[in-house]
Specification:
Blueprint (H helix, E strand, L loop, with lengths): L1 E2 L11 E5 L2 H9 L3 E3 L15 E6 L2 E7 L7 H14 L5 E10 L12 E4 L8 E3 L3 E7 L6 E7 L8 H17 L3 H11 L58 E8 L7 H11 L3 E5 L2 H4 L5 E9 L10 H17 L3 H6 L3 H24 L3 H15 L6 H9 L6 H4 L2 H8 L3 E6 L6 H15 L4 E7 L10 H15 L4 H10 L9 H9 L4 E7 L8 H13 L4 E7 L3 H7 L8 E3 L2 H18 L10 H15 L3 H11 L5 H9 L5 H10 L6 H13 L6 E2 H9 L20 H4 L4 E4 L10 H8 L28 E4 L2 H7 L6 H7 L1 H16 L15 H13 L6 H11 L3 H8 L11 H7 L3 H9 L14 H7 L3 H9 L14 H7 L3 H9 L5 H7 L12 H7 L3 H13 L4 H4 L3 H4 L5 H10 L8 E5 L2 E5 L2
Helix pairs in contact: 1-7, 3-7, 11-14, 11-28, 15-17, 18-19, 20-21, 21-22, 21-23, 25-31, 31-32, 31-33, 33-36, 35-36, 35-37, 36-38, 37-38, 37-39, 39-40, 39-42, 40-43, 42-43
Pfam families: Ank_2, NPHP3_N
Keywords: ANK repeat, Repeat
Protein name: Pfs, NACHT and ankyrin domain protein
Length: about 1100
Amino acid sequence: MSTSQALKSRELYTVGWIAALPKELSAAIAMFDEQHDKPLDFEKHSSDSNSYHCGRIGNHNVVVACLPHGIYGTTSAATTASSMLFSFPNVKVGLMVGIGAAIPSDANDIRLGDVVVSLPHGRSGGVIQYDLGKNHVETASGSDHVLHVFERRGTLNTPPQALLNATGSLEARARIDGHQFPGLLQDMLRRHPRMGKSKPRQPGYVYQGQERDRLFQASYPHMSGLGCKDCDPALEISRDAREDPLIPEVHYGVIASGNRLIKDALERDMIAKDSGEDCLCLETEAAGLMNSFPCLVIRGICDYADSHKNDDWQEYAAATAAVYAKELLSYLDSADVTQTSRAIEVIEQLSEDVHKIRGILNDVAQTVDETQADATYHKVLGWLSAPDYFTNYHEALEQRQEGTGLWFIQGKAFQRWKEDPHVFTWLHGLSGCGKTVLSSAIIEALKQENTAACTVLYFFFDFRNPNKQSLDGLLRSLITQLYQQVPNTRLRLVKIWRSQTEEIQRLDYSTIFETMACHAGRVRIILDAIDEAPSRRHLLDWITSSVDKKAYDFQLMVLSRMEEDIESAFLPYLVHQHKIQIQKDVIDRDIYAYVNRRVHHDKTFGRWGAEPRAQRKIVDGLTTKASGMFRWVVCQFAVIEKCLDYPSLSEALDTLPKTLEGTYERMLKDIPEVNFPHATTLLNMLIWSDQSEPLKLKEIVDAIAVRADRNIVFDPINRMPHARDVLRICSGLTLVDRGDIEPPSMRWARELAHARATLQPWPKDWEYQPAHASGKVSDPMEWTCQLAHASVKEYLISSRVLEKFRLPLMEEIAKTNLAKMCLAYLSSPGVDTDTINKFHLTRYSAKWWSIFAMCAAPGDRSLHMLMTKFFKSDTERFARICSLTEPQASVGTALYYASYFGLEFGVQDLLKRGVDTNILGGEYGRPLQAASVRNHTRTVQILLAGGADVDGVGGKYCTAVHAASSQGHFETVQVLINAGAMVGEMDAQIAPLRPGWRIEHSPLSTAHKIGHTQMLGIILNTYMNDPRCASSIERLSPTLCRIRTPEYWVYLWKRTSRIAPHLNVEYQGGQWTATFP
């Protein structure tokens, strides 16, 4: 065998060869006419653990892989083959070559060393899986005799047509001239003489002799010893001697494949009978390949699948199979291979076809009409409840000036990203440099390509909206987009949706998305502003895991600021050319176009129309200092607009802040002292309330009017007369969304749109003369307010904020004041659910007071007084206000809500006033359950000390320990058990109270389900040591049988002798099981 340098590309390998054993791999390598190094562009798939050997046989470049050493079976074979197709994607035909066991019969005289080749026969494609099916019982016609029948299920693919053509040509030629076994075997031994040498337990790749090929009657078992010298010759089946035993015969037909080695002749014959096919051979890998690797199976016979089997013939059988494969490749037409689809495409098409057929059958079976399908479509979308993905995209797109971002869209990096599979690119730049606008431009460019083979998914993280700040929100959005754009992914999601029950509470959205994406072709994903996710660890783990696994065909692009945690997470997965810094110079070109357009066409700057020097000074002053910060430029226009003469203009341009934070500091300094309280209230509401429901101006107006430290807390006379004046309080730091007038958020949306029209003047005043389609101005009270940019929030909560604002904006102080504001407002006369239209802050206060109070400064006397006053308010009014946040749930008492939110002072105050700790009400039934489900351990202890029934039943989870365990709250579970909670016995008492309650809802089962080993340990310890649990141990057997942690089973075995001596614990087949005789 000659050697050569590596081929240029892995695309040149079109034949894949799978071996199961090292001895089969040796035979395969020995068939190479020329051996190659790995191709120059070879890049192993990240999940690929295969070892590859490359070479040429005849006119074909062949890649060979072997199953992991010591592992066999259909699953392992499928994994090996699938990995090969990812690492060598141009493989078109496959060969599974190795040893097998003959199924001898009167019709099939198969000898050791013969070769069996899988070919379609009857209903079979050439391979059947004998252990895939169903046992059922039938009664013989006309009698009471019962038959146990095995019904085989499923079908496996036929080999590729190119291989079938070659097989037919080889078989026809062999009938004339015979096979080339002797010559090819001799050539192998000549080139590799070591293969012909025999060693102890290594007989060599040579014929073992006719006298060692013995076949016994099926009913006669092997006696003893390694050989058959003690076996009765009288029970050996007599067969005619062959003319030339050194020339193996080739048999074509069906091969039976399964996951077990068969060493029993009776079982062998039963498999052949049950298969319904004339099977020639048994083996353990092929069934795993046929639907994941289009191939022909070639088996050299090494035994008869009986108890007399030994390993002496394995090397020779591996050699004869490999020789046949080599001879077959000489008949494989290169033109046929060229016209054959890539194996991976065949598998994908098969999968798609199968799912299409299943979808059609499902439609027919269920007679689903279009109306029902449409209803299901919308129900699934409602079930996902994904945050919208289009609002931020369209807002950013409106901001984009024509030509912006072309430096990237027309650049090499973007073209490379679109061409490479499984590519990951990270664009990073400073805050305010225009990354979000660039994201929208990239998405628009991808959509305009209109490539049917690619699906574009995107998501904009948003500091203002908590639904757009988490991995959960991202995945639900991506799943929704796939569901909407790729119809053949819908059946999978609908199936998951239909399977949802109360028992399935923790959906793995990552797995759902991956499953759908595998069937969506190429998926292009754009993620913007991931730095605006406050907690990024799980998000970064998902991104890097997706890049690492390459489980589906994707191209991923992420845009963010340069943050240390992001960079450290991404760097191991990025090549240099895919880490791109957004450079200042390319952004400055876009800034110049924007500034130049505005200065020359905006009426605000019309006073400088006859003063080219002033216009040049504005353009030069802004563009030279911008340093790639688009946001900085926009902020400066607010100052320049006010300049009425050249000296003031010149001074303003000369004294512009150098940084964005310097700009924000100047804006804070410009707030008049009289508006300071209003500014802190407004900024705190925008900073510390999530913006999933944006604040309306009418809510802000009422908030500013609250005087929490006065006798009359709220008087409508204190409201601002004009709601729009809210925008003047923190000008430049906040923005308004006018609903029907213009898209939410930014002033740029309209300003940049005007920049596209060179002859159209800019509006004089954007605030009062906006461009809109309807011509109607909405009620300013309904407008919503938000922070202007993520950088605004970051500055305001940083230690660098203007000192005057530092303390009022600190989280603890801010939330204490906001909690006081909400409680004072809710306690005001006239505030009720039927007066929301008059008292606009009611709903906001009902939602946020407790959330703010949980984080408030401990020991704040005025807050405690307001809380006490609110809890003492009219019971029915209190319940109505609480119902605003829980409209669907049973309304709880003051103690219930104080416990639910962990307000320790409120709980203690109510207990001092003699409130019943076990009073019923609320979604979770009792105060103790409410505190337990939220893991307020200290509140739980206060309630227990105050007389709460640790085993009291009520609400969604029935008992406190069930509530805490359902959420994985180990500390609270431990407190409850230490207080005497009955874990096992309560399960039996709950069952008759809750229809549908099963033992699977028990704390033990829950702890196992969520994988919380600490909690599992303490609950098992309770079962083992608390005599009250004895009667429930036996009922828990289904749960215990599912626990696979050996340590706990050993522990269980040692500790149950006195409680459950009849419990049997065994370790078999790698699993621990518990049974009760």
